[in-house]
């Protein structure tokens, strides 16, 4: 089973905490989720700017504003405001449960997706699963002054000793994340070369790690990528 | 595919025999056989039926026909959504309707469209609050013959339905800053965990997975997990595991056969249960059962009322039929339930009679008749 032609990018706000804790008793526990206009605008701006610079056609805001009317309502308001400044980019909104349902049946309808923190995690992992798993999904964390690039989705396999010993970890995700970093640093040609090489290696199918259905080691995949660099 | 159905049947039959022989104390809380059903002299079980709006009445008619043909001992008590707000319930659902469900302890609900306007609560919210429906159970299994990208899906999602992120407690701190509260209580978590393990036991399921994000939300999801662990100790024969929500999503789309019964708080449950519905073909085919305090069970079709095809005999009654099947399982009428389920699955698998949404051209009545023929 595979999903062809799914090619979407997901942005989620990383700064706001869904984890402000209260002193609790044995019987009751409360957690606060904070949404601010400032942060929502910031992520919406990044999403639209990214879409604009990378020739993406649609930005979809993922939310649950029918239930969390104030919080996600504020998020949507900010997104709509920013959307009005980019008339060439289509903007639509989708409720998060419907979104997940659509992702597993028709992921090709999505292009760029922008979400608050918690849903972003879910949606990113769902999309990663559809695209082939954590081993292939790149990601980046962008701030006002710095940017850190890492695997796009984690599924609890991080730090497992057996992958280290058997040397079968999939380097594709990190390689593609480095390509994203190169693009961020405005080296698009280098980024393209790296990405194309990785894509070619996977397409060929000779060198694939276990999670993609093959039995190559990490080093074999890397050697293949280097060999394919133009 | 037939092997799948046969496997599921055998498994359930044998485990039912074992369980009815040795009932644990908690079973009494949920078992319908221990209840006094309001029955007429002919020993039928009364069940409330809300046909709903749009395509609701047609598919409800379908269910009634199939049940009559299968000789199910159920007497329907129909209630309709009113056109005026009932001040006692603050919504279009009358007090009599709610009392009917409370009395009969079991019901079936079609799709209800909440009319847009102010001054009344949403119909689904009214039902949930008034009947204290605390668990939403959705069995998701691949329908043989209806191909999706995932075959062999066979899991059940059990979602806590009263608190969590959907408590509705939000406030604006200053302009531009909004806070939303997530409430987790021991009582609600224990309640849903108890039901999850009871369901697993009575339906011959082997594993219960609690889905959480306790690595981030340590206190709230931590409390939920603690409650699940407590209940897990009482059921040593059922395997218990905990899965982080991210991991769960990924695994679900890569390999849904890894999961059996999933129990989760409100928000994750909402998203995961819809995701699982998507895996098997959408809301038009997914059954759903809501469990309330005192052993109340309200089965419902979770799709919309589809006003564009209402009254045209084009609607697909599968979701409502399969929900009715899960209602029969709740009533311990397992043989009858399996009979109807098999008939529905066989009809869809055959492919000759399928409604428009499944890619066919049959009408609702043709589809219903085909199911009756397969009984």
Automatic annotation (TrEMBL), chain A:
SUPFAM superfamilies (UniProt xref): Isocitrate/Isopropylmalate dehydrogenase-like
InterPro entries: IsoPropMal-DH-like_dom (IPR024084)
Keywords: Tricarboxylic acid cycle
Gene Ontology MF, one: isocitrate dehydrogenase (NAD+) activity
A biological process from GO: isocitrate metabolic process
PANTHER family for the chain: DECARBOXYLATING DEHYDROGENASES-ISOCITRATE, ISOPROPYLMALATE, TARTRATE, ISOCITRATE DEHYDROGENASE [NAD] SUBUNIT BETA, MITOCHONDRIAL
Record protein name field: Isopropylmalate dehydrogenase-like domain-containing protein
From TrEMBL, chain B:
Domain Isopropylmalate dehydrogenase-like: 46-371
MF-aspect GO terms: isocitrate dehydrogenase (NAD+) activity; magnesium ion binding; NAD binding
GO cellular component: mitochondrion
Superkingdom of source: Eukaryota
InterPro entries from the UniProt entry: IsoCit/isopropylmalate_DH_CS, Isocitrate_DH_NAD, IsoPropMal-DH-like_dom
One Gene Ontology term from the biological process aspect of the record: tricarboxylic acid cycle
Cofactor: Mn(2+); Mg(2+)
Keywords attached to this entry: Magnesium, Metal-binding, NAD, Oxidoreductase, Transit peptide
Family, per entry: Belongs to the isocitrate and isopropylmalate dehydrogenases family.
Protein name: Isopropylmalate dehydrogenase-like domain-containing protein
